[in-house]
Amino acid sequence: GENVEQHPSTLSVQEGDSAVIKCTYSDSASNYFPWYKQELGKGPQLIIDIRSNVGEKKDQRIAVTLNKTAKHFSLHITETQPEDSAVYFCAASPHSGSARQLTFGSGTQLTVLP
Amino acid sequence: GAVVSQHPSRVICKSGTSVKIECRSLDFQATTMFWYRQFPKQSLMLMATSNEGSKATYEQGVEKDKFLINHASLTLSTLTVTSAHPEDSSFYICSARDPTTGELFFGEGSRLTVL
Q1: Cβ of residue B3 closer than 8 Å to a chain A Cβ
Q2: Are B109 and B91 in contact (CB under 8 A)?
Q3: Residue-wise over B20-45: b if at least 16 C-beta within 10 A, else e?
Q4: String of DSSP letters for A81-113
Q5: What is the mean pLDDT of each run of 10 residues along chain A (114 residues)?
Q6: How many CB pairs lie under 8 A apart between chains A and B?
Q7: Quick check: B104 and A97 in contact, CB under 8 A?
Q8: Is B46 on the interface with A (CB under 8 A)?
């Protein structure tokens, strides 16, 4: 089955700096890669996703890049703000929206220092 | 506002009792919902897939008699933790997929503490 590895497990940045979180996956059949933000005591929220026919996707301060050959994808947050502090999970799935086959990374605790 | 709602958000119970957690999709009908368990500082672990009108599909290692799932309507799935023990204490999260957009929405989670 799919295996998703996520690094780093913790990340601290100064407000205004950029943050990058990286994930690798093992199943070449995976073609859907969402990123979730989970605040303390809450459920995950989808912040951005990318499908395998796209190499990069951007939404304001958040961007995701995908390298299918190397089987890795990354989340980039620019101009970080304290409210960006949360746990971020990457995930991979062979089908868009198929939660049954959605494999999550281990999570990254991002702390943005004011 | 929330698209998927869970209730209760926190529950404390005594060992040996049963606890029911509800998951409702507010904006769409969901024939399939999913239940996860999350331990502190760990990722989400899929427990089971809840199917409207039929039996739930459980992941390997998840006791179906321990974690009863009922999906009686297109907007409601319930997870009942039966004869709860302290090791069942965890954060339980549900999700549902919007059939129109394909997007997966998660509930706010339910923190279960078994004394």
Answers
A1: no
A2: yes
A3: ebbbbbeebebebbbbbbbeeeebbb
A4: -GGG-EEEEEEEBSSTT-GGG-EE---EEEEEE
A5: 93 98 94 93 92 90 96 97 97 73 92 96
A6: 51
A7: yes
A8: yes
